[in-house]
Amino acid sequence: MGGGSSSAKYAHIVDVLRERIVRGAYPLGSMLPSESQLVREFGASRSTVVRALEYLRQLGYLEGVQGKGRLVLGTPPRRRPSPPARTYESLHAPEVGNGTVVGAGRAPASARIAAMLAVPVGEPVIVRQRIMMGSAVPWSTLSTVYLPAVAAVGTRFADVDPLREGVLDHLERRRRLVATDVVERMTLRAPSARESTLLAVSTDDVVLAILLVVRNSAASPLLAIDLAGILPPAGIEELFSLR
Amino acid sequence: MGGGSSSAKYAHIVDVLRERIVRGAYPLGSMLPSESQLVREFGASRSTVVRALEYLRQLGYLEGVQGKGRLVLGTPPRRRPSPPARTYESLHAPEVGNGTVVGAGRAPASARIAAMLAVPVGEPVIVRQRIMMGSAVPWSTLSTVYLPAVAAVGTRFADVDPLREGVLDHLERRRRLVATDVVERMTLRAPSARESTLLAVSTDDVVLAILLVVRNSAASPLLAIDLAGILPPAGIEELFSLR
DNA sequence: CTGTCCAACTTGGTTAGTCAAGTAATCAGG
DNA sequence: CCTGATTACTTGACTAACCAAGTTGGACAG
């Protein structure tokens, strides 16, 4: 199946209908002509028409309602992108072979941590730190994972042994959770004393801190990861697709 | 159409075939059983089988070759993500109503610019600067667009009038080009004298510089944008989908 | 041994038909 | 006037069949 480049009949129907939606001949919120009407208009079989409609549905132009019709959604909005590779790696790369766990345990949530995780100040949280340095990584970083202690029950976050899967994979698997999005917040700040020590930098240096808050479909935080690091002079790169 | 959650016959076929691919029953590089064989195995019509196969093809598990068969591609790799919203805006948001163009003209390419654009040092390039400040933007930035002067022929990049479309949209439209990816490189540095002046910051401050290099399918640079700005204390946020 | 042709297979696309399930409008009865 | 049943429409899914186009392997002639 494809769109415009094929000369197949279904592809022609896709093109005509999409053009009509895009130029407003079928406005947002209106109902598309029924399959029967389109069969007559295009002189095509119902299967061929439905094939074109299914393709438009997948692209986000239409929503089918059984028994009623197909609702025009207008031009599909740009979808929310997937995370950049570095964020993806932070969530999914196995800890094993990927730096050193330098601490794991419980602590009461500070105001900042409480805000991150949407829990009360003082609530016990699990804090797990791992450091990644050396030429195998694009930038030296200290990764600090936070999650509520109650949410960590049944997981291995409080152990210092590195996980054989990504931190998010581990949480989703052990707690049967489903993460749906991640908020990434980037800030510049001075390193803490501990960060200075672990990253072997001066407290006068500037660290790039990226806070990731992973959420479920109700937008509730499941997990937060604070990545703090020193960018190399050449910076760090990411590649994104424009197609 | 969908995958596993439906009880429809085609959905069941999707699940079974995907599971076989994932666990290696159909290894990467092998040919899937033919449609006829699958029709017999599942006791389904060819249309129902093909519907399942088309879905798997769209997910990236299979590649059909007319007359030959369907090649197993294995578990589809993670697709390259689309740019984060802020990068997307830099490329596609219309300049009009979005900051002030503070300079536009020709200059010989410095070594740095030459490297960015894959042109010889000294080659004439168009440099276009726009500043975005104030509460309407998440961070104050100076955007500097660079492209080879020969590539800018027929465009309005050398004018100080703001464009009514995004810079990449303008280039693609006027020059009939197709951009396929963008490399984003993030660095921290001190502001230049001009940046200090335009951004109203001290030369002792740290700017976050994001260099975007937009490329075509041959990985040739079409356009470079240097975004330099001061992060607010709260940082800047992005949202990414994990589904 | 090589080149050509053909049969048998494959996928890509189209058609016509059926049944299931949902929605909405209409009509009859109370 | 209200309610339940019915009818006519819709989409979701499945089936059987056909034609077009591509690939491959085997048979045969030179």
From TrEMBL, chains A, B:
<dbReference type="GO" id="GO:0045892">
    <property type="term" value="P:negative regulation of DNA-templated transcription"/>
</dbReference>
<dbReference type="InterPro" id="IPR036390">
    <property type="entry name" value="WH_DNA-bd_sf"/>
</dbReference>
<dbReference type="GO" id="GO:0003700">
    <property type="term" value="F:DNA-binding transcription factor activity"/>
</dbReference>
<keyword id="KW-0804">Transcription</keyword>
<dbReference type="InterPro" id="IPR028978">
    <property type="entry name" value="Chorismate_lyase_/UTRA_dom_sf"/>
</dbReference>
<dbReference type="InterPro" id="IPR036388">
    <property type="entry name" value="WH-like_DNA-bd_sf"/>
</dbReference>
<dbReference type="Pfam" id="PF07702">
    <property type="entry name" value="UTRA"/>
</dbReference>
<dbReference type="Pfam" id="PF00392">
    <property type="entry name" value="GntR"/>
</dbReference>
<dbReference type="InterPro" id="IPR011663">
    <property type="entry name" value="UTRA"/>
</dbReference>
<dbReference type="InterPro" id="IPR000524">
    <property type="entry name" value="Tscrpt_reg_HTH_GntR"/>
</dbReference>
<dbReference type="InterPro" id="IPR050679">
    <property type="entry name" value="Bact_HTH_transcr_reg"/>
</dbReference>
<keyword id="KW-0805">Transcription regulation</keyword>
<dbReference type="GO" id="GO:0003677">
    <property type="term" value="F:DNA binding"/>
</dbReference>
<keyword id="KW-0238">DNA-binding</keyword>
<protein>
    <submittedName>
        <fullName>DNA-binding GntR family transcriptional regulator</fullName>
    </submittedName>
</protein>
<feature type="domain" description="HTH gntR-type">
    <location>
        <begin position="7"/>
        <end position="75"/>
    </location>
</feature>
